[in-house]
Design a protein that fits this description.
This protein is of the alpha+beta class. The protein has a single domain (3-207), classed as Muramoyl-pentapeptide Carboxypeptidase, domain 2 (2-Layer Sandwich), CATH 3.30.1380. Helices cover 34% and strands 10% of the residues. The chain has helices at 3-16, 37-49, 56-59, 87-102, 116-128, 133-136, 172-180; strands at 72-74, 83-85, 108-111, 153-157, 186-188, 204-207. It has a four-stranded antiparallel sheet with strand order 3-4-6-5. It has a two-stranded antiparallel ribbon with strand order 1-2. It binds zinc ion (ZN). Zinc ion (ZN) binds at residues 148, 153, 155, 204.
Length: 217
């Protein structure tokens, strides 16, 4: 292998490195930072391979999301599987879980960080089973555009509510989240009638850096 071959991955990584990691830019901004053209081209190529049209994301008001590189553990999911988020989001989530517990509410994780490769795999599996891409995209977000890829988003549930189920909106845990999540910097991404035309997802919350209104009561 030539030295050029050895260098290539490092150079490529530098070119496609998410903007959030350039010059210490903060993680989990309120508005996603513009992503490098080479990275966006890579996302488009992956999606073309799944049969997703280039204009699909723009038509749905979706913007490319950076992929988190540095992740830390948050409380495990309801099946005991490891869940990870970027450090500031993880810290805020743990504080929020503790505050909820103090109020007699048990919050549980369902899903945190998901890589673009994993998101692609989830859709590929469905296509291989004969599902149409249109149907698959009602279940999984377009690779490269999922908030879960940033490590800032988390799906939550509470005992007695199935994972990623609309009935979470009628739980005491959800009522607690509506009253308290913003204090910890967590916000509902897909409320009813959202601009992305996603279904209402009461379980999906995104941490926005600097948006916490208080650290304690
Ligand atoms: Zn989610």
């Amino acid at each position: 292998m030539s030295p050029a071959h050895l260098l290539a991955p490092a150079i490529l990584a530098a070119i496609i490195a998410p903007a959030a990691f350039a010059a210490g830019a903060e993680l989990c901004p309120a508005t996603p930072l513009p992503q490098p053209a080479a990275y966006v081209a890579h996302i488009n190529e992956v999606n073309r391979g799944l049969g997703i049209p280039d204009d699909y994301a723009a038509k749905h008001n979706l913007v490319p999301q950076p992929e988190a590189k540095h992740l830390v553990d948050v409380p495990r999911d309801v099946y005991g599987r490891k869940v990870q988020m970027v450090p500031p989001a993880a810290t805020a989530l743990k504080q929020m879980f503790a505050a909820a517990r103090h109020d007699g509410i048990k919050l549980e994780t369902v899903s945190g960080f998901r890589s673009m490769a994993y998101q692609t795999h989830l859709i590929r599996e469905k296509l291989d089973r004969g599902m149409t891409i249109r149907k698959a995209l009602t279940i999984n977000a377009v690779p490269g555009y999922s908030e879960h890829q940033t490590g800032c988003a988390v799906d939550l549930t509470t005992p007695g509510v199935p994972a990623a189920d609309g009935s979470f909106a009628r739980s005491k845990a959800f009522a607690w989240m509506q009253r308290n999540a913003a204090r910890f910097g967590f916000h509902l991404s897909f409320p009813p009638g959202n601009k992305y035309a996603y279904e209402y997802e009461p379980w999906h919350w995104r941490y926005i850096a600097g948006s916490a209104t208080a650290s304690s009561r």
